[in-house]
From TrEMBL:
Belongs to the shaker potassium channel beta subunit family. It comes from Kribbella orskensis. This is Aryl-alcohol dehydrogenase-like predicted oxidoreductase. Keywords: NADP, Oxidoreductase. Residues 15-314 form the NADP-dependent oxidoreductase domain.
Length: 337
């Protein structure tokens, strides 16, 4: 495993991290989830990403149990706050001072730890003054409950304003967690340049585009049983944008490129996002331990410029690059408002 600094901080994270969105406490039985975490640890992964909203807090509980007994100082644990949790009352959502303080306390209890390494705003909250949010995060840091602050799917402008307030409050805002893959490159035009200037690193999710870049979805065919595209608990909604014959045909055309560099399609996809120097870590999930073992083989891979050009030529116009998609995919009001 290779390690990278998280933004311009002194914190190093494994360049491939393990995330339990849509799996722990939901799609995957607890014992299987724990086996995946064990495989991640054995593969050298030290960075684990979760959120209070995943399986309505159950994912944090499963991760906390899976990591119990592992030397805490050897791990980097990331979690998030914003989306509705619990019964979904009017204050069980958002980035208010009340919700942030109650959420960090709940997360620490479920994760069985005294602190998280990075506490992330899971989305921007348009209904809470940003000053209130950042002051609450500053309280969390000063209480020793989080070492660093991060965001997820914030626009360049939101990152710039959040970073300005963080500097005034003397707390480290060092990361952003966006979706990023060969097929979804919306952060490249604005978010990445702003982040480079601010010293913010990307911890990207969905590097294999919800499984589409594994090549298991074939054009003109029904999705395989048990795949994310057949998951009615939320997975199917996330992956459907990529399930067109044009996209799936072009993904199959990537296989000779992957073969040429000795990688599977999944490994090629993960290695591709890691070529971006602003990416600190790529989050991978798994429903089986062997998937973890295969994913980590993308660590340390250097793709030559010619290979990157071939990938671009194959994918062509199907790549989504519109920078406005970051704002468009973020809630304009709090869920439930």
């Amino acid at each position: 495993m290779d390690f990278r600094y998280l933004g311009n901080s002194g914190l190093k994270v494994s360049e491939i991290s393990y995330g339990n969105w849509l799996t722990h406490g939901s799609q995957v039985e607890n014992e299987q989830a724990k086996a995946c975490v064990k495989a991640a640890l054995e593969a050298g992964i030290t960075t684990f990403d979760t959120a209070d909203v995943y399986a309505n807090t159950k994912a944090e509980t499963v991760l906390g149990e899976a990591l119990e007994g592992v030397r805490r100082e050897s791990l980097e644990i990331l979690t998030k706050v914003y989306w509705p949790t619990g019964p979904g009352g009017p204050n069980d959502v958002g980035l208010s001072r009340k919700h942030i303080h109650e959420s960090i306390n709940g997360s620490l209890k479920r994760l069985k730890t005294d602190y998280v390494d990075v506490y992330q705003a899971h989305r921007f909250d348009p209904e809470t003054p940003l000053e209130e949010t950042m002051e609450a995060f500053a309280d969390v840091v000063r209480a020793g409950k989080a070492l660093y602050i991060g965001t997820s799917e914030w626009t360049a402008e939101q990152l710039q304003e959040g970073h300005r307030l963080a500097r005034e409050l003397r707390i480290p805002l060092v990361s952003n967690q966006p979706q990023y893959s060969m097929l979804w490159r919306v952060i490249e035009a604005e978010v990445v340049p702003a982040s480079e200037e601010l010293g913010i690193g990307q911890v990207v999710f969905s590097p294999i585009a919800q499984g589409v870049l594994t090549g298991k979805y074939m054009p003109g065919e029904q999705p395989p049983q048990g795949s994310r595209a057949t998951d009615e608990k939320g997975g199917a909604d996330m992956v459907k944008r990529f399930l067109t014959d044009d996209v799936l045909t072009r993904v199959q055309e990537l296989k000779p490129i992957a073969d040429g560099v000795g990688l599977s399609l999944s490994q090629l996809a993960i290695a591709w996002v890691l070529q971006n120097p602003n990416v600190s870590s790529a989050i991978t999930g798994a429903s089986r331990p062997e998937q973890v073992t295969e994913n980590v083989k993308a660590a340390g891979v250097k793709l030559e410029d010619g290979v990157l050009k071939q990938i671009d030529e194959v994918l062509g116009h199907i790549v989504v690059r519109d920078a406005a998609m970051t704002a468009r995919n973020s809630p304009q009001t709090r869920p439930g408002s």
